[in-house]
Amino acid sequence: MLSREWFTAAALAALALPGLPRSKPAVIALAKRAGWQHPEAEGRLWRRRRGRGGGVEYHCSVLPAAAQAVLARMSAAGAAEGDGRAALLALLAAVDLEALVAAHAIARQVHRERFGREPDAARLRRWTAALYGVLCETPADGEGAAGC
After folding, report:
1. pLDDT per position as a tens digit, 98-145
2. Dihedral of CA 132/8/60/46: which sign?
3. Nearest-5° Cα angle at 13, 7 to 16
4. Which element (helix H / strand E) includes 59?
5. Contact partners, residue 65, CB within 8 Å, separation at least 6
6. Cβ proximity of 18 and 70 under 8 Å
7. Which residue has the higher pLDDT, 62 or 92?
8. Residue 42 DSSP code
9. At 75, is the secondary structure helix, strand, or coil?
10. Which of 38-77 are b and which e, b meaning 16 or more Cβ less than 10 Å from the residue's Cβ?
11. How far, in Å, CA of 76 to CA of 74, rounded?
12. Segment 15-18 long-range contacts (CB within 8 Å, at least 24 positions apart)
């Protein structure tokens, strides 16, 4: 059982789980396309967020199996360790380092070819994250393009 079962679109985007978009608007668009927020599913698949700002939270059961598996590992690691370090290690274990290194190299090369100079650190991080997301997108067969 997960220690946390309900997540906002922003939280899901920030977790960068496999099979999910990496931005809040994209998660909301996915939720609409997939029917996560169907009126009859209120309370089971989604609920209105309590507290300041309102919004919506989605139940972990609506997430792709790979995302649920990562959340379960994070939850188990966090419970065993008792702090956030184990959860971070579990999340890092889910990262495909070969795909991340490839994305970093591609981002540097493209920037050098396009602008004739090395990218600054912030730009390189953004480009690497974007390329890593493309390399690890989950196609219809459920397997990541780079085995992510």
Report:
1. 677 777 888 889 889 999 998 888 888 887 777 766 666 544 444 444
2. negative
3. 110
4. strand 56-59
5. 142
6. yes
7. 62
8. B
9. helix
10. eeeeeeebbeeeeeeeeebbbbbebbbebbbebbebbbbb
11. 6
12. 15/70, 15/71, 15/91, 16/133, 17/63, 17/64, 17/66, 17/67, 17/70, 17/71, 18/64, 18/66, 18/67, 18/70, 18/94, 18/136, 18/138, 18/144, 18/148
Task: For residue range 19-72, list pLDDT tens digits in order.
Answer: 899 899 999 999 999 999 999 999 999 999 887 777 899 999 999 988 888 888
Question: How many helices (H) and strands (E) would you count in the chain?
Answer: 6, 3
pLDDT score, position 143:
46
> Which tokens belong to 70?
């990562």
Amino acid in position 56: V
CA distances (Å), origin 73, targets 7, 30, 41, 129: 16, 24, 27, 22
